[in-house]
Each structure stands twice: as structure tokens, then as C-alpha cells.
Write a structure and sequence with these properties.
Layout: E1 3-4, H1 25-32, E2 50-52, E3 55-61, E4 81-84, E5 86-87, H2 95-98, E6 103-111, E7 119-125, E8 131-136, E9 139-145, E10 151-154, E11 164-172, E12 183-187, E13 194-198, E14 207-208, E15 212-218, E16 223-233, E17 236-245, E18 252-258, E19 264-269, E20 272-277, E21 291-299, E22 302-311, E23 316-319, E24 322-325, E25 328-329, E26 332-336, H3 350-363, E27 367-369, H4 377-386, E28 389-393, E29 403-404, E30 407-408, H5 423-440, E31 446-453, H6 462-476, E32 483-487, E33 505-508, H7 520-537, E34 542-546, H8 565-580, E35 585-591, H9 621-633
Parallel strand pairs: 1-9, 26-27, 26-35, 27-28, 28-31, 31-32, 32-33, 33-34, 34-35
Antiparallel strand pairs: 2-15, 3-4, 3-6, 5-14, 6-11, 7-10, 7-15, 8-9, 8-11, 12-13, 16-17, 17-20, 18-19, 18-21, 21-22, 23-24, 24-25, 29-30
Helix pairs in contact: 5-6, 7-8, 8-9
């Protein structure tokens, strides 16, 4: 069975004008929209089995600039082995691999368990950055564009249970102006090398940074998807659910809701309905409570398939200048983060997952933003279990030609144009939004969707580009969470064109660093002026989703000069003074949680140093100041 996902999203010729009339967007997207093939996250149940394919794989680079010159469905050349999950860039002591632009190949042999002869079995890739292909022996069985969401292929008809097959996964890291995130490939003048350029200020790590699975589901009747939308009715909790099953399912659908002790607290039946939990225990920030929403397909009193989803009962809404969780005002403390660590790059690591959440708890952070892409689903599950609030963001970063790597450029071209961010980019962006929400729709920790980070919302064409995408997000989310974008410093309240389309205001501001550098008195006045401008123009809550200063750990200055630990501390203190004067500010997320890797160059020395923790998670002086402030704000002594 061949499943080709996202193949034609980037294949249309851009129209002669940058954008059609806004009312035509919905028709154009609907005409070319591909169905989402993403299914439920694989797990072991009484009717399903799961085999991890993580470990060491054979590895090779494609022929320069041509992924079809060698078929690569035969065995790869001997020599290189690579761990999965991990980015490949920093694994080998080879500059050619570190800087590679184009396709790479992962390969290993896999045996389908012989006990699966009556089952359907699939290969699932949690993420292939930024484009992936799955080959079973000599056959291409799936392709997916988009580097941070999963895709899979049903291989039941290709390999018999008990048989061994060769699994090859091709991964391409190329970015163009029609991908999300965007970029461009330059050919160097003297050597003709292909060099990837991009606008985002984090390293373009690539490869299989998340897990690969072989898993089974029942052959004929199985659960494809579960949607669970929660609500509250007095002391009762409500789960408004929809269950999607395979075609031809004839069994009954039965619902059981279990509390954390395993006691049944609600039951229902049918593919659509409402499960009511009396005396409900709510999911609260810092005090998570999760129910297991168990779905069974039952035929003649036999359970054909079963799957459970962890569900936290809670409500989310915006009211005036407040953000309410369970009808109580919530104030965000926390960070923008990155999936980033030494050697692994963006490779998911359970040890870092647990340690990072320990640091969040230690410092008093109750939230984070998945800047600037969806994180591994294990991160979302951990946030669900530990009561951490998440702003979930798409990979749409770098949609502003006015900046590059965090540093202002000179005389940039227009961002929104047929040669730049265009209708094909928008289609890829819409796909990224739909796939993010399809994956994360049931996570209690997710309280809003961010559809872009720092786009050129001040430029002509921004409204035509973003108006339909805001609607895509609203249409895709059955729970109707708030939708935001994160505003770029150049797009002030005076020139921004799109903020009215969104539910909250999210601001990234660097007064005192990129402007008013080193002069915190001047920076405070500038920050105050802009904040008042946003308040006067919009009656909306404001979250500062980025503010920070690069800091070299161990560098000290009695004058609190830039790059010193003292300056970072005084910089953050200044912002907090301003926040405390404005009741419109309902959140502060420092940039960044930890130092992270970026492109090398004269503007970055071994990465971005705005972390309050070092890359290996040692606290800078500012971490202790934040701990004192945030633990008081959230009521923890």
C-alpha cells in the first residue's frame, strides 16, 4: 500500500500575482488539500503491539545534488553507523556531513514478528527533518514534506509476518522559499558548493531526530483516531468525543473513562457522544489530573481493538485582558525553549526531558512555548502529566526577509511576493497547521496554537497571507483553543497589519539588546511606550513570548556591561518592572531556557547565549533571580 503525503503541496506554479483576493483562499486550499494520514500515536495495548526501531542504523549521504543517481534501495556502503533518534550533523567528525545539503539515507533490517500474521502492520516516522521517504526493500511506500510531524506507511501487503525486510529512510534537509520554515540554497562562486541559507536563528539540524516504530493493529477493524473535547457543567466534567475507525468496521464502539485509580467513572457508546464524569477532578496548571478515555471496538462480546487517550478535563478562554484556565486568571511564567543538546542536536533524549522539566519546576516556570516547531510528542505527554502549560507552535519561523539570524539586514526584498513567501508557501504552512493540531488536539497541556513566529506582519501582503491561515487553525481544532502569532519587533503597533485577526498579543521584544544596547534606562522608556501603544489599540491580553540578552556564563562586570551575567539579571529585572505596571500583561516567557546552537559566523560564537541555563543546563545568575520572582508569582515558597 503506497501512501504519498504532501507531494503536490509545493508543486503548483505560483500565480502571476503574489496573492489572489482573500475570499479565494479557502477555495484554493480546499481544492488542493490532502487528507491527513496521521493516525494515533502507536502504543502497546491488549490488541496492538509496538516494536521500537531506535538504535544504530547504517548511514550514507546521497550523491551530490541528485537523490536519484543511485537507487539506495540496495544495501548502503559499509562504514557509517548512526544513532536514531539524533540529528546527524554533529555525530561524525566530518565537516562534509556536518554541512551536507540534500538527501541522506538511513537503513537497517527489520523482522515483522511472526505472531502478526493476522494483523495489519505499519512503519511510523515521528519526524524526518525536513522531508522524508520510506522504502521497503525496493519500493517507495510513503513520502512526507514537513520536518516535525509524523507520517507512516501500511506495509502489510509488502512483507509477510516472520519475514525480514530492508527498511531505508531517506531524509532531505533542503529549505526553499516555498517550505516551512523557508530558506534558499546558494551555489558558492569559486567552488560551486551548495550552501543552505535560512532566516531562523537556530541550527538547521536534520535527520531522524525522533523515534521510528513498527507497530500492529487488528487487520480489519481498528481505531484510526479519537477526538476528546473537554468541558465542565457544574461539578461534572464532560468529554465530547468522536471516534474514527477503519472502513468496514461493524463492531460496536464502547467508551469507558477511568480515573487515576483505575475506577470506571463514566461510560458511553457509539462513534459520537458525551461522557459525563460526576464530581470531576480538573486538570490544573501545576496539579495535573488525567483520566484514561478508553475506546473499544466490540464484536460479539469480543474486544477487536482497544486504545486509550489520556484526557485532562479543563476549560480555556480569553476574557477581556485575562486568560482563564478553569475560569481562573492564569499568568504565564516560563520560556521559549529549543530541542537542542550537544552531539544529539535535536535528537529526543529522555534524560534531558526529565531534567529540563525538573529545572522548570525548580525555577517556578509554569509554561513554555514550543519555539519554533512542534516538539516530540513525548514532551507533550510529559507536560500533560506534570501540569505544565504549553503554547504549541508550527515551524513557521523566518517569514520576514527584514531580519536574518536575529540581526537586521540592509535593504531586504519584500517578504510576500511570487519570488518570496507566496501561495505555495501558504499551502505548506496550512499543512503544517493541520498536522500540528491533528497530532496535539487531545493534549490538556496545550492551551493555544501559535501559527508563526516573527513574520513580517508589517509588510504589504501579510494580511492576505495570514487571514486564511488563522481560519485554517480555527477550523482544524475541535476544541477551539485561542489562536495567536508571535509579533516581530519591527512590526510595532503602529505598522502591524494582522493582530486583530488573533485572540491574544504575543510580543518578542529586545529593547536593551538589539536596540538601546547596554542602556537599560532608555530601553525601559522604549518598552513602556510600546506597551502603552498596544494597550490603547487593542483590548487583548499580552504575553511577552521573548525577551532576553546574550550572556557568557562566568563573565562578570561591576558595571553590568552587555554579555555579563550582571547585565542579563538587570535586563530581566527592568522588563519585570514594566510588566508589573500593566495589568494587560498576563505572561512572561524569557528567551531562552538554555543556550542553543546556531549557524556559526561573526554574529554568533558557538550559538545563541540568551539562555538562563547553559547548553549543558548549568544556571547563570539570572536563573536564581527568576526563581525568586516566579515562585512568588505562582504561589510556591
Amino acid at each position: 500500500m503506497k501512501v504519498l503525503i504532501g507531494l503536490s503541496l509545493l508543486s503548483f506554479v505560483a500565480p502571476s500575482l503574489a496573492f489572489p483576493a482573500a475570499q479565494n483562499y479557502a477555495r484554493n486550499d480546499a481544492a488542493h488539500q490532502h487528507p491527513l494520514h496521521i493516525q494515533l500515536k502507536p502504543k502497546n495495548t491488549a490488541t496492538r503491539e509496538l516494536v521500537s526501531l531506535d538504535g544504530l542504523w547504517d548511514f550514507a549521504l546521497a550523491q551530490e545534488g541528485n537523490d536519484t543517481a543511485t537507487p539506495w534501495t540496495s544495501r548502503l556502503p559499509k562504514g557509517l553507523e548512526i544513532p536514531v533518534p539524533a540529528s546527524y550533523n554533529d555525530i561524525f567528525i566530518d565537516r562534509k556531513i556536518h554541512d551536507h545539503v540534500g538527501w541522506v539515507y538511513y537503513q537497517r533490517e527489520v523482522i515483522v514478528p511472526r505472531g502478526w500474521s493476522d494483523e495489519r502492520y505499519l512503519i511510523r516516522i515521528e519526524a524526518a527533518t525536513h522531508e522524508g521517504r520510506i522504502y521497503v526493500n525496493d519500493e517507495l511506500v510513503a513520502e512526507h514534506v514537513g520536518g516535525y510531524t509524523p507520517f507512516e506507511a501500511d506495509i502489510t501487503s509488502l512483507v509477510s509476518a516472520g519475514e525480514k525486510f530492508r527498511l531505508t529512510i531517506a531524509v532531505n534537509n533542503e529549505l526553499t522559499h516555498e517550505t516551512i520554515p523557508p530558506g534558499n540554497i546558494e551555489i558558492t562562486e569559486f567552488t560551486g558548493k551548495r550552501v543552505q541559507r535560512y532566516q531562523h536563528d537556530f541550527y538547521n539540524y536534520a535527520g531522524l531526530a525522533r523515534s521510528v516504530w513498527l507497530y500492529s493493529v487488528p487487520r480489519e477493524q481498528y481505531i484510526r483516531d479519537v477526538v476528546a473535547v473537554t468541558g465542565v457543567d457544574g461539578a461534572a466534567g464532560l468529554i465530547n468525543y468522536t471516534v474514527t475507525t477503519s472502513e468496514g468496521t461493524t463492531g460496536d464502539i464502547r467508551i469507558t473513562v477511568l480515573d487515576e485509580d483505575g475506577t470506571t467513572v463514566a461510560e458511553a457508546s457509539g462513534a459520537h457522544g458525551i461522557a459525563r464524569i460526576n464530581s470531576v477532578k480538573l486538570w490544573q496548571p501545576g496539579a495535573a489530573y488525567l483520566y484514561q478515555f478508553v475506546v473499544d471496538i466490540v464484536d460479539s462480546d469480543t474486544v477487536i481493538d482497544t486504545y486509550s487517550v489520556a484526557v485532562g478535563i479543563r476549560t480555556v478562554k480569553v476574557s477581556g485582558r485575562q486568560f482563564l484556565i478553569n475560569d481562573k486568571p492564569f499568568y504565564f511564567t516560563g520560556f521559549g525553549k529549543h530541542e537542542d543538546s550537544a552531539i544529539r542536536g535535536k535528537g529526543h533524549d529522555q534524560a534531558y526531558l526529565v531534567h529540563d522539566f525538573q529545572l522548570l519546576d525548580w525555577i517556578g516556570a509554569n509554561s513554555f512555548r514550543t519555539s519554533h516547531y512542534p516538539y516530540a510528542e513525548e514532551v507533550m505527554e510529559f507536560a500533560d502529566r506534570h501540569g505544565i502549560v504549553v503554547i504549541d507552535e508550527t515551524p513557521a519561523v523566518g517569514l520576514a526577509y527584514s531580519i536574518g539570524g536575529g540581526v537586521s539586514g540592509g535593504d531586504p526584498p519584500p517578504t510576500f511576493s511570487p519570488e518570496g513567501i507566496n501561495n505555495n508557501t501558504r499551502r505548506a504552512h496550512a499543512q503544517a497547521i493541520r498536522e500540528l493540531i491533528a497530532r496535539d488536539k487531545n493534549h490538556a497541556s496545550v492551551v493555544m496554537w501559535s501559527i508563526a513566529n516573527e513574520p513580517a506582519s508589517n509588510e504589504e501582503g501579510a494580511r492576505e497571507y495570514f487571514a486564511p491561515l488563522a481560519q485554517v487553525a480555527r477550523d482544524a481544532d475541535p476544541a477551539h483553543r485561542p489562536v495567536v502569532f508571535v509579533n516581530l519587533g519591527l512590526a510595532t503597533y503602529k505598522v502591524d497589519r494582522i493582530t486583530d485577526l488573533f485572540d491574544l498579543i504575543c510580543l518578542n521584544r529586545y529593547f536593551g539588546w538589539y536596540s538601546e544596547t547596554g542602556d537599560l534606562e532608555e530601553a525601559e522608556a522604549a518598552l513602556e511606550e510600546e506597551l502603552k501603544g498596544w494597550e490603547k489599540k487593542f483590548e487583548k491580553p499580552i504575553i511577552f513570548t521573548e525577551y532576553g540578552a546574550d550572556t557568557m556564563a562566568g563573565l562578570h562586570s561591576v558595571f553590568a556591561l552587555p554579555w555579563s551575567e550582571e547585565y542579563q539579571t538587570e535586563f530581566l529585572d527592568m522588563y519585570h518592572r514594566v510588566f508589573d505596571r500593566h495589568d494587560s500583561v498576563i505572561g512572561e516567557q524569557v528567551w531562552n531556557f538554555a543556550d542553543f546552537q546556531t549557524n556559526m559566523g561573526i554574529n554568533r560564537v558557538d550559538g545563541n547565549k540568551k539562555g538562563v541555563f547553559t547548553r549543558d543546563r548549568k544556571p547563570k545568575a539570572s536563573a536564581h533571580n527568576l526563581r525568586a520572582r516566579w515562585r512568588k508569582l505562582i504561589g510556591v515558597e
